[in-house]
């Protein structure tokens, strides 16, 4: 039996049981789960170990690379700027980033970046992992690049590029890098232990992901396929996140570090209409922008049906849920989902990665348990 720590309201004991079951089935090594209701924590649990040898315990303040759950934080930065009237999602990207108009992209709108429909899911030029640490190179190449399909016509998951695209717009509008904007405007006011660009003082609390055991090989696909061009350049594996340069860099689509508590603490504010625990990030209208559908169909990269709103996945075939529910998760299994009707937010973060890009049963089980408790 795994020893869990933390707290769990009696109403949500099913969440605790689902979380325990993940360990008992050998699916988790170390993980955390958090549930917020009406802006307050009702579940805050953690357990297991930092390493496969199960020597070092996962602690209350352990944080880890959450991969694409980071995108939700980057999207929130853009939503806040739009809510403040400083950013227009319907405006051409080039209004804020003039160089972006190159290669026929003068009509690409900010909303296309937010909804993965810009046609820039990867780089056309060869990229190494180390190039992700060079903000100027990563963004300049995208600014000069021709879209791979007509922007706005379909979604194709911008797995790594979305963070640079939206992040550069945030930088041009606010005068601050996306990591600094997030720290000053979101994490700081909320006291959320989440970073886009993790500082040295947090290093002793950082766990390393355990890479997937059975990664599908891109070598089996044609080299010119959209999937290979998107996910294979640069070539990433779980261990890419182990390095200090990765940790320090602002990689706003996949390099954020946090735990379930910090992820849920941020998104609980949106779940409550933009304000929780005395902190307001968005107006009610600003929250509703999330539900403006940008695409609805089979994603060109993921190959599964996805309904994208403004920066988030929306309820649909992929995640059947309430009409005002949004979600996204990270490679390997991390997940956050929030329902503005029930004011519920659930987050799950772990170290043992599964190979899929669209989640797995571990996060889904705690989400379903939390939803059942609300019935």
List keywords for this structure.
globular, 11 helices, 7-stranded antiparallel sheet, single chain, 3-stranded mixed sheet, Beta-lactamase, 16% strand, 375 residues, alpha+beta
Detailed description of the structure:
This protein has one domain: 3-Layer(aba) Sandwich (Beta-lactamase), CATH 3.40.710.10. It is built from eleven helices and 14 strands. The protein has helices at 13-24, 70-83, 110-114, 135-144, 161-174, 178-190, 226-231, 244-248, 260-271, 284-288, 361-374; strands spanning 4-8, 30-37, 40-48, 63-65, 206-207, 257-258, 275-276, 279-280, 295-298, 305-308, 313-314, 325-329, 335-339, 344-350. A seven-stranded antiparallel beta sheet has the order 1-3-2-14-13-12-11, with helices on both faces. Strands 5-4-6 form a three-stranded mixed beta sheet. A two-stranded antiparallel sheet has the order 7-8. The longest helix is centred in the first third of the chain and has 14 residues, at 70-83. The chain is globular and about 55 Å long. It starts with a strand and ends with a helix. The mean pLDDT is 96.
* Overall mean confidence score, pLDDT: 96
Number of structural domains: 1
Oligomerization state: single chain
How many strands, which pairing sense, and closed or not: the largest β-sheet? 7 strands, antiparallel
Q: Work out the radius of gyration.
A: 19 Å
Q: Count the helices. How many?
A: 11
Strand content: 15-25%
**CATH C-level category:** Alpha Beta
Contiguous runs where pLDDT drops below 50 for at least 5 residues: none
State the helicity in percent bands. 25-40%
The sequence of SSEs as H and E is: EHEEEHHHHHEHHEHEEHEEEEEEH
Which fold name fills CATH's third level, the topology?
A: Beta-lactamase
What's the CATH H-level homologous superfamily? DD-peptidase/beta-lactamase superfamily
Q: Give the total of beta strands.
A: 14
Q: Termini, distance in Å?
A: 29 Å
Strand order of the biggest β-sheet = 1-3-2-14-13-12-11
